[in-house]
Specification:
By secondary structure, the chain is of the alpha/beta class. The protein has helices spanning about 45-50, 110-115, 120-130, 150-160, 175-180, 210-215, 240-245, 270-280, 295-305, and strands spanning about 5-10, 15-25, 30-40, 60-70, 80-85, 95-100, 105, 140, 165-170, 185, 200-205, 220-225, 250-255, 290-295, 310-315. The longest helix is centred in the middle third of the chain and has 12 residues, at about 120-130. The radius of gyration is 20 Å and the shape is globular.
Length: about 325
């Protein structure tokens, strides 16, 4: 049996993550084998690792080079640089087999580190904003705007012609978010200050708790509030009467990986290509705060959980 190195859950070490020998994947006919160069950390996978069993594989984001093309002739060729989404999560490894519909070729100017930030954070940002349709001359509210998803969402909303209001928890994050394209930045733990600048045609929230309860009263008539996370609290108290009085608003949830078979999740390839092209054109700039070898993944997982940095942390594989 051929083996390789990969990150797995190990309850005995800090961050519950360690590098071990695992079996090398054998691609299916519609899969390519990718030699992974870089990946990035997401709160969801770190949270899952906190309760997963010993030996569980991990890693959604993948950037690397095609080592073996798909046997059915689809997708990129050997040697092509690609970005991809690994689900089930197995991307923190030397090699990973990915469906061709979940990967996109990279423009030459996009680095592996930049590409590694795009699959989960970029797809979440682009797909939550699209819940509202056209953003031209609309008002958008983005909470958690200094985080991996929020920072990209600010840029995407601004590029689509929206007036963007961003919410951050700390004043030192204001310059970063303004540079990303926010017209106004609110420093607040509960987002209450954003009410004076609303109502909003689209609201994208990652915080939950009191923040979610407050922003649901700020939706414009016909607008939509999309929640994709609950970093503060999964529970929120909602003033239903005020929400209804906003005029037929929509409250939607977003999951990158749906637990429900009937839920249709579009293939990632086309949106990944869009995101990579935006980076290549300079219209999208991922905020990478930490770059480190994958041997430090356990420490980075702890730092991310304890909010010791904003933006994205990229790990280099091998």
């Amino acid at each position: 049996m051929a083996t390789m190195k990969a990150v797995v859950v190990d309850p005995s070490v800090p961050g519950r993550l360690a590098i071990r020998e695992v079996e090398t994947p054998s691609p299916l006919p519609a899969q390519v084998l990718v030699r992974v160069a870089a990946s990035s950390l997401n709160r969801g996978e770190i949270r899952s690792a906190g309760t997963a069993a010993d030996g569980q594989r991990i890693g959604w984001d993948v950037a690397g080079t095609v080592e073996q093309a798909a046997a059915n002739g689809s997708g990129p060729r050997v040697g092509d640089r690609v970005v991809g989404l690994s689900f089930p999560p197995m991307g923190w490894a030397e090699l990973v087999a990915l469906p061709t519909e979940s990967i996109a070729e990279l423009p030459g100017s996009v680095t592996f580190a930049e590409a590694a930030t795009l699959p989960v954070a970029g797809l979440t940002a682009i797909r939550t904003l699209e819940k509202r349709g056209s953003l031209l001359e609309r008002r958008a509210l983005i909470t958690g705007a200094s985080g991996g998803v929020g920072h990209l969402a600010v840029q995407l909303a601004r590029a689509e012609g929206a007036h963007v209001v961003a919410v951050v928890r700390r004043s030192d994050a204001v310059p970063l978010v303004r540079e990303a394209g926010a017209h106004e930045v609110i420093v607040s733990e509960d987002a209450s200050g954003a009410a004076a600048l609303g109502p909003y045609d689209v609201i994208v929230d990652s915080i939950g708790g009191k923040v979610l309860g407050n922003i649901l009263t700020m939706v414009a008539p016909g607008g939509v509030c999309v929640t994709y996370g609950a970093t503060a609290s999964p529970e929120a108290t909602i003033d239903v009467a005020r929400f209804y009085r906003a005029g037929l608003p929509t409250f939607a949830g977003f999951q990158m990986f749906s637990a429900f078979p009937e839920a249709s999740v579009p293939p990632a390839a086309s949106d990944l290509k869009r995101l990579a092209n935006l980076v290549a054109d300079g219209r999208l700039r991922p905020h990478i705060e930490v770059e480190a070898p994958w041997t430090e993944v356990g420490k980075l997982a702890v730092d991310l959980t304890e909010r010791r940095f904003d933006g994205k942390a990229v790990i280099y594989i091998g």
